[in-house]
Specification:
Blueprint lengths: L7 H25 L4 E2 L2 H18 L4 H9 L6 E2 H19 L8 H20 L13 H12 L6 E6 L9 E6 L4 E7 L6 H15 L7 E7 L8 H9 L7 E7 L4
Parallel strand pairs: 5-6, 6-7
Antiparallel strand pairs: 1-2, 3-4, 4-5
Helix pairs in contact: 1-2, 1-4, 2-3, 3-4, 5-6
Pfam families: DpnII-MboI
Length: 259
């Protein structure tokens, strides 16, 4: 359903059409006892104006325009029951115009939700039905594969293992690059021998290379730490995010969150 322009003028006009229709319905009850049809120009004018209003507002093929047209008889005569049914359509339009349009979710909010719920998806895949092998995350490649699958639900332009231009004589591969969102994603998974210091050093080496990617404006480090090996998460996140600039934003997502 498309959301119409909720101008005061269109709302007032809708209310006036409803008022006219309700008045015609009262007259229709009087006619119903004597004659099945209401024969008066006002009814035809009301129906014509209402159908044009709904078509202009929602489109000819919309559920409201089609629904109202279906309530009308062919020819110049309209049953009072058709006016009643047509009014119900207008009441639906009135309720629709009072609704707020859906809030658009940004790509950043979508990514946050994926990272925040990644661990729940990983746990679910570990427990599968009988005779099916569990999907167990053992290294960074396993994290990348699951994250890549989750990203496809919301994004179309995903580049895997995206090469950076040469910097200081070498190139690196970014794990994933969402080109339309101008956002790169680098995945890390904590291990017993990968200390916080070593992890930070790896990321510091990566950042200058990823800044060379044309058009890239944001870099997210998704650090999957299911065993809570990072003891000072806030310090690591703060130190790395402070390397951001107005032209290049650095985000650090260490998940799952500690309750």
């Amino acid at each position: 359903m498309s959301y119409p322009q909720k101008s005061n003028r269109s709302i007032d006009y809708l209310n006036s059409l409803i008022a006219v229709g309700e008045n015609l319905l009262l007259i229709g009850h009087e006619y119903a006892a004597k004659n099945k049809f209401i024969e008066q120009p006002k009814t035809i004018t009301w129906a014509t104006q209402t159908l044009k209003f709904l078509t202009d507002l929602y489109g000819r093929d919309s559920i409201f325009a089609q629904g109202f047209a279906g309530c009308l008889n062919t020819g110049d005569r309209y049953e009072w029951a058709c006016i009643r049914d047509g009014l119900h359509v207008l009441y639906g339009v009135q309720a629709d115009m009072q609704r707020e349009p859906p809030v658009e979710v940004s790509s950043g909010q979508i990514l946050d939700n994926i990272f925040n719920r990644f661990h729940m998806a990983a746990i679910q895949l570990r427990t599968r039905r009988k005779d099916h092998s569990p999907y167990v995350i053992e290294d960074e490649y396993d994290v990348q594969d699951l994250l890549h699958a989750l990203l496809w639900i919301h994004f179309d332009d995903i580049h895997r293992e995206y090469w950076t231009p040469k910097y200081a004589g070498s190139s690196l591969q970014m794990d994933m690059y969402l080109k339309s969102e101008k956002t790169g994603i680098e995945v890390k998974k904590t291990r017993s021998y990968l200390t916080e210091k070593k992890l930070g050093e790896q990321i510091l080496i990566d950042i200058p290379h990823y800044k060379q990617i044309p058009g890239c404006r944001k870099l997210i480090f998704f650090i999957y730490d299911p065993d809570t090996l990072i003891t000072n998460r806030l310090a690591l996140e703060r130190d790395l995010m402070e390397l951001s600039s107005p032209e290049f934003t650095i985000c650090v997502m260490i998940r799952p969150k500690i309750q």
